[in-house]
Amino acid sequence: GANVLVEKVFSWPGVASYALDALLSSDYAPVQGFVLTMAVMYVALNLLIDILYGVIDPRVRLEG
Fold it and tell me: pTM score, two decimals?
């Protein structure tokens, strides 16, 4: 959401602006691709953070 705002305020072309323009013109294929990409990135970053917690703090490691 904030990325769309920054791109619109400063007139920077970007993926979020493209996705918003596609949504407003009812072109759903780019919107689906954008949502899928953001969902995969969200899951991947959360997995990376969970793994790093185990590396940084030994109390968090799984037993068994």
Answer: 0.67
* Per-residue three-class SS string for 6-62: HHHHCCCCCHHHHHHHHHHCCCHHHHHHHHHHHHHHHHHHHHHHHHHHHHHCHHHCC
Query: Phi, psi (5° rounding) for residue 55?
Result: -75, -40
Q: Which of 38, 57, 35 is nearest to 46 (CA)?
A: 38
Burial class (CB in 10 A: 0-12, 13-18, 19+), 57: exposed
Cβ pair 30, 21 in contact under 8 A: no
* Per-residue model confidence as pLDDT tens for the chain (64 residues): 677 777 777 877 878 778 888 888 998 898 899 889 889 999 999 999 988 988 888 787 766 5
